[in-house]
Amino acid sequence: MGLTNEIIPHYYPDILKAYTKAAIKTHPKDILVWSALYFRCLANGSYPPVKHRIEFQYNNKNSLFSEITPGMLRILHRHMGTNCKIQTQALTEKWKEVGFPKEFLEEVLQTGGWRKGDVDWLRFIGSVCYKITENLDESLIAACYVLSENTLPCCFTFGQYRYIALHILDRHSELSTEAYLEKVNKIEKISSHQGGMVYMENIKMII
After folding, report:
1. Domain ranges of the chain
2. Chain segment 133-169, per-residue pLDDT in tens
3. Contact at 8 Å (CB) between 93 and 61?
4. Which residues is 183 bridged to in the sheet?
5. Is residue 152 a contact partner of residue 123, using CB atoms and an 8 Å limit?
6. Which of 15, 21, 47, 142 would you call most buried, defined as having the most Cβ atoms within 10 angstroms of its Cβ?
7. Could you give the percent of the chain with pLDDT greater than 70?
8. Nearest to residue 40, comparing CAs of 109, 98, 123, 124?
């Protein structure tokens, strides 16, 4: 008994408790792969792949796209830690590491024109959000959550909002550009009174 007490750290129950809560919140598809990444991140002092809250999946017609949620995408964003351009290879490796479907990434890279070279990170976030929500307003709300430095209240800059919105409009001809640009102008006026920030509630208000 004495030997056992010396081998097992006294803080082990706290680690196990935190791990259990993280697993319940995140609900990973592959618990073994996710667990390995979780403890690797703890050992390296980096962000563990943990959602901040339990999420309901979007009712996407394509089952492949329904496997990704804004919370999962937020995890990836925290790991990549950039709003600039990243190499396709680096993104592919990290995508695989966090256990996301390979086919989903291939679809987004192809539609975004990023099969080789660098990936525009903000546009990539917007593309993924649109794939999983199938709605422009909802995709921008999701992007706000992904990019926000805070969980409550969620916000991002007007520049990020506009950049992502215009990218989605440009890639999807079925959307009404003129109608949505009116919303963009309204959001710009609202953000001018909020230090240039756009809050999730602002987007919901003009839907």
Report:
1. 12-50, 51-205
2. 889 999 999 999 999 988 778 999 999 999 999 999 9
3. no
4. none
5. no
6. 142
7. 87
8. 98
